[in-house]
Amino acid sequence: MSAFMRDPLPTRLLRLMLIDADPVFRLGLRLGLASYRDLELVTEASDGETALQLLDDRFRPTDFSQTEIPVQVDLPDANPSGANSEASIEPNPNLTAGIDLVLLDVGLGRNNPSAIQGLALCQQITTLYPSLPVLLLSANPEPIVRAAAQQAGANGYCAKTAEVPVLVAAIRQAATGSGFISAIELTPSAPLQVPPSQSLSQPSSQPFSQASSQTLSSAWTRLLQRWRSNGNRQIDRALSDINASLQDLDLPSIDRAVLVGQSRELRAARWVINRLLPPVPLADEIADTLTDGVQNVPPDNLPARSSSEPVRSFHAAAAGGSTPTSAITPVTTTSTLTLADSRTVQSIVFDTVFSKLQTGLTNQSDVPLETDILREDKKRELFYLILRKLEDLLSELRYSQATADLLEQKRSFLLLDLWQNTTSDFFGRYAVLSVDGVEFELVNVLLQEDEAVQAAILDKIPGVVELLSHLLFQTPIVVDSTPYPAGNPESLARSEILLENLVIQVGNAVIQPLLNRFANVEAIKQNFYDRRLLSTREVERFRNDLSWRYRLQRLYSEPKDIFESQYRLLVLTGRSIKQIPIYAPRNPELIQLRGIPFAVTLVLETRDAIAPRLRSVVSFVGNGVIYVLTNVIGRGIGLIGRGIVEGVGNAVQDDRTRRK
Questions:
Q1: Which of 34, 267, 426, 597 could make an S-S bridge to 559, C-beta 3.0–4.6 Å?
Q2: Is residue 101 over pLDDT 60?
Q3: pTM value?
């Protein structure tokens, strides 16, 4: 084999720790790595508690920068037969207690909400052992989980279904700690899209200028992250003071209006900061929070603390003192530092949806949507605005100390408020529209449709309370009747699709009054409509399609979904808008059905009861008919035909005989 096709000769032995609940996968990975002489799987754990205990009791991160494992290579000239020509790696006996890399299943604990979740465990490991790299493994890779992995401080992200050479390349690169790598869609023939791996025991081969530029880039990124963290903390303190002042019932109306305006400006400033500056790793945010003092930080910004965590560390921070490192011990029962910080989960979900909005927004679902009439840029602008208004709504709920029960009670009011604020800002609060010589204040007219919009769209958006409660209070989110805590890959993915559906449906609610009141106004067409829908005929055809969609949805689609225990959500695929079903028990709604919707469920139930038997009868009758046609009638026809042919043949033969 050519030297270029061969694995590069390893310079040191990499000792690995695998944390995965699946014993079959652990065995398979151990067998797959057995043929690589530079990789050794030294220990395994099936849950987060066991993993933390092993790390605390037996292992310590090892620095190989001063120690090099000798590599003995037989030169080809000295051994022409090729025997023992591969590198021989001899582990250093002084390093037997260390590990170089942790392989962690991102879905760890997915079936046990009370256990430490994979992403939370990754954050704990990177916090307690900063020099120990972590490579996350994912069975179902999702972009939002990859973003969460970076927030948790992982060094890499690889699919569990990847071929062994791809996984080995990811392991070697992640062990260097040179930056976040992703090996989700790679094949053995496609190299990792990261800088080449280098041995920690050898000096870097990069030019000094390149290394210096990378160092400066990293320092600049850290500086921007620090600015973002400090800016958010200052804005949070100012908002907390403003909200406290607004609680005063005797506050003059002018002062109240000024404070409300300042609150709005601060929220806008925070939105700009979070969009322009790079996100801060969660461990850094928690460290900044502890050093800054508890008395200056809102309660929601404090990291979650388990019952077994020493309380003195937080009291020491509040008193301005420092907590000795020895006082902070790893917790083996519950998560001390979790990825489930409400702001962090919200940031991950919102940033993922924000990135999807930058791609195609063409509707490829089976149903027409009100937003289909908008130009692509206007549709994107509307969805961006809804996302920002929803961030403001979450901030107000967070600082008003709302409870989960209050969200259920105020659900309709919250959605209506979100719709009103979005409508006002999208069309312009003071926009004036002239129709046949009569001027209308556009927003005031559109907001008069609140009852129709709420009944047709807003009240039918599923999962709103669950999403808000999950983002605000870290309430476990239910997926297929199983609750998943905040930070779990399943809960992150479900939060993402619920948020996407909420944004799209609120966008439809914003456009619906416009189509009802001013669909054919020329100024509206020129400013908002897609060029293919400018003619009056196309606009009326579009409105008729929407009207039929509502009728079909009310009479057939909605009762069918209730009977099938599902919701249909509109989601962003990164290229278009599509509709997907999710399971949800809806028995109370099924009991309340009346009239035609109830008759639809009866027809569906009758069809389910009769169809299998009817198919069996039709199949039996069909087989009988086929038998009669082929074996009875077919054979009879065949015998008759053969008799006729034989008779004709005999007649011809007799005629020839007489002639002779």
A1: 597
A2: yes
A3: 0.64
